[in-house]
Amino acid sequence: MLLQTVKDYVFIGEEREIAGCCDGMSAAPRELLFQLTDLMTQFSVNVLDIGFGLGLTGRMIKGGEDSFYWSVDGIDGFKPNCYNNSLINDNIYRNIWHGLAQNIPPELFAKYDVICLLDVIEHLNKEAAIDLVRYILTNMNDNARFFISTPLWFYPQDTIQEGDLEKHLIGIPASSMMAMLPLMYQVNNPLIGGFIYNKASLDYIDMFSPVTNPAFSLEQGHKIARAVSCDCTPGKITHINYD
Question: Residue 68 and residue 127: Cα distance in Å, rounded?
Fold first, then answer.
């Protein structure tokens, strides 16, 4: 079930104050979005930010010289984030929903040019993570891009406040991310990878295999990345041509 709190930049929630502090920092290489150069010349660009947290991605987009006109919608599973007065007053997100991305109707997914899942997938259990990635790739339109970032190891993180969904439950090896054939990627310290895919990656969804063992270390993550030739030079953007 989805609860909409902002519609066309106007707050429509029933209550303005919600118990709990807004949360959701991330080390995602979100600037990778600006490598989607074809979008910079389009008249209309629609972005869905799943698990937007403090709204860092939305603020980056609305503050960009070539992206300020993009329309950004957000959905988050932690209710206080959906009542963030700062985000609402600054008109960062056009629409905001409280709920799970799996509950977004397929016809709505198909309207977006970019779907962002930045430092979110590691908070889900293995089955839910696989199902969500498959759902997004299945329902996004043929020309859309899917931007996902995640630690390429089991990054230890626990709950901070009740219901915040901050605990990490899985780690994603670089082999899984590379096997889905990204168009481009970038890795930040400490081994946080950002990958952009298109619809064709749906054919490789079975390669997406999260690790549930918390012993999957940073060192192991680096070894796997090297084994699959994933360039982990911090800040370096790698474009891939599969032709």
Answer: 36
**Phi/psi at 78 (nearest 5 deg)?**
-100, 115
Spatial distance between the Cα atoms of 241 and 243, rounded to a whole number of angstroms: 6
The candidate with the shortest Cα–Cα distance to 120, out of 23, 32, 36, 35, is 23
Residue 158: pLDDT over 60: yes
189 pLDDT more than 60: yes
**DSSP letters along 128-150, please?**
HHHHHHHHHHHHS-TT-EEEEEE
The residue type found at 187 is V
3-state helix, strand, coil in the chain (%, to 5): 30, 20, 50
- Find out whether 212 and 170 touch, Cβ atoms under 8 Å: yes
* Pair of tokens at residue 32: 């990778």
Per-residue pLDDT reduced to its tens digit, 192-239: 999 999 999 999 999 999 999 999 999 999 999 999 999 999 989 999
pLDDT value at residue 214: 95
Q: Which helix (H) or strand (E) holds 239?
A: strand 237-239
Report residue 40 as tokens.
């910079």
Query: What was the pLDDT predicted at 39?
Result: 87
Q: How many residues in total does the chain contain?
A: 243
Residues whose CB falls within 8 Å of the CB of residue 195, separated by 6 or more in sequence, listed in order: 147, 148, 149, 177, 180, 182, 184, 185
> Positive or negative, the Cα torsion across 159, 222, 209, 237?
positive
Strand residues in 99-200 grouped as ranges (E): 114-118, 145-151, 184-188, 192-197
Q: List, in sequence order, every residue forming a beta bridge with 11; answer none if it has no partner.
A: 6
In the beta sheet, which residues pair with residue 150?
193
